[in-house]
Amino acid sequence: MEPALHLTIADGTATVRITNPAKRNAMTDAMWRALPGLLERCAADPAVRVLVLTGEGDTFCAGADISGLTDGGSGSRDLAVAAEEALAAFPKPTLAAIRGFCVGGGCQLAAACDLRFAAEGASFGVTPARLGIVYAASSTRRLAELVGPATAKHLLFSAELIDTERALRTGLVDEVWPGDALDKRVAEYARVLASRSQLTQVAAKEFVAGHVDRVAHWAEHSSRSDEAVEGVAAFLERRQPRFVWTVEG
Fold first, then answer.
1. pTM for the predicted model, two decimal places
2. Distances (CA, A) of 190 to 87, 96, 194, 244
3. What is the distance between the alpha carbons of residues 151 and 157, in angstroms, rounded to a whole number?
4. Per-residue pLDDT averaged across 20-49, rounded?
5. Which residue, among 55, 57, 48, has the nearest Cα to 10 in the 3D structure?
């Protein structure tokens, strides 16, 4: 199977599958380059309300494919950071569904998602210290904001792997499930997210990221949309709301 990112869209959820099973789904330079464009397509597609990132088979992603590195990894590192930033900037909710190894660049991608659900037995690590590579400043900051300075330092200094119990305790993952229950939980949760107001979600995502300069922007969108009217009406009528606002709306 050729290394690639495979995209499927169903029931409001875009699923991006990292596929390079011969190398535990390691990301090649071509895959890093492809991710921002794929995300741009999904962001512009009103049929997509949620994005799930996962790996083929029993591994999420073992990092960057370093077999062809000849420049100390600087080129691939730049590509990885660009892909990570594109994922972090994706306007709709994102969820990483993690099995097996989530290491290096794989952990970098998972950290750029809004939420992370893992199967029991998954392993997490940030491993540039094994290779003498300086981890990107933006990636370091995102990791520290997610797990706190002490855990970030442990991961970066030692390059050791941690298990799902520690990942859950430190905030690196949000939920841990038995392996045979993960897909069902991810699908159910994605359906929940897809049913909620995208206006609320997109504005909240910006505010959580610290973009408080956009308060007026979102107040205007709120006043021009019928999201709140529909939400209140659905509540009073005891039915599911039909939210229609989209990123392009």
1. 0.94
2. 17, 11, 6, 17
3. 10
4. 96
5. 48
